[in-house]
Amino acid sequence: MAKATKPQRAALDALDDAAHAAKQARRAAKKLPKKPANKIRDLADDAVDAADVSMKTLRKRPKKVAAHARKATDRLTAATKAALDKAASKAALRAEAQRIKKEANRAADQKRKKREAQESAVLSADATAAPGPNAETPLADARTDPGGSEPAPRTRPTRKPAAAKPAASTPAAARSTAPKPTAAAQATAEPAARKPAARKPAPRKPAAKPAVASDLSALTVVQLRQRARDAGKTGFSRLTKAQLIDLLA
């Protein structure tokens, strides 16, 4: 067997490089999308065809065989690198998009939690500021007291004890010791005793009641109720102003 020349050895190296590149490209095509993977497989088949050369052709035209193998290898390598770079770029963009989406979701969750915390704080503040069940509302005050003030509890007037009456009759000893008046003294004393009995009591002035009514009409409902309370009246909490004036007049 004749020794291979330098061009023949270069052609053999080019054929080996083409076969190795086709093998690596087919392995990489499995990780690529369908369209670029099909393109890489086609170029890998071309590289395999370029590497499949008979020894007769290699001895006759080694430079042409080497050039054809190198061209197929370079084309396959460039296409594989471009497809891998594009896939890596897409993967990076996809990862960046996922990261941005996660950050947006995290920010939305934080904002939602902050809003819920603020709402719960407002609700708790409203609950603490709300009056209890025993607290009186202004509406209840207005119903119980039309004049705007809460009436005082009813108190019964206390009766004053009756004063002791003086004795109507004198002792028997005083009657026996008193001297009897004479007939002349009785005659002069009878007109004097009858004269003051003939006096009639002075009539009441009718102008006093309107004056009192006019004074009472100048007062408010609260003041009228206070006067009724001081006077010992009862059942005046639901009376109007005119009824209170009639009650106090």
Brief digest:
This protein is mainly alpha-helical and 249 residues long.
pLDDT below 50 for ≥5 consecutive residues: which ranges? 135-140, 163-179, 187-193
Count of extended strands: 0
| Quaternary structure type | single chain
Round the mean pLDDT to the nearest integer and report it.
75
- Shape category: rod-shaped
- Determine the number of helices (DSSP H or I, runs of at least 4 residues): 10
| H/E series | HHHHHHHHHH
Strand content: under 5%
User: Which class best fits the helix and strand makeup?
Assistant: mainly alpha
Largest sheet properties:
none
Whole-angstrom Rg: 64 Å
Description:
Mean pLDDT is 75; it is low at 135-140, 163-179 and 187-193. With 249 residues, this protein is an all-alpha fold. It has helices at residues 6-29, 34-51, 55-60, 62-129, 138-144, 172-177, 183-197, 208-217, 221-230, 241-248. Among the domains are: 7-124; 205-249. The longest helix has 68 residues, at 62-129. It contains ten helices and no strands.
Q: What key phrases describe this protein's structure?
A:
single chain, 249 residues, mainly alpha, 0% strand
Describe the protein's topology.
Blueprint: H1 6-29, H2 34-51, H3 55-60, H4 62-129, H5 138-144, H6 172-177, H7 183-197, H8 208-217, H9 221-230, H10 241-248
Helix pairs in contact: 1-2, 1-4, 2-4, 9-10
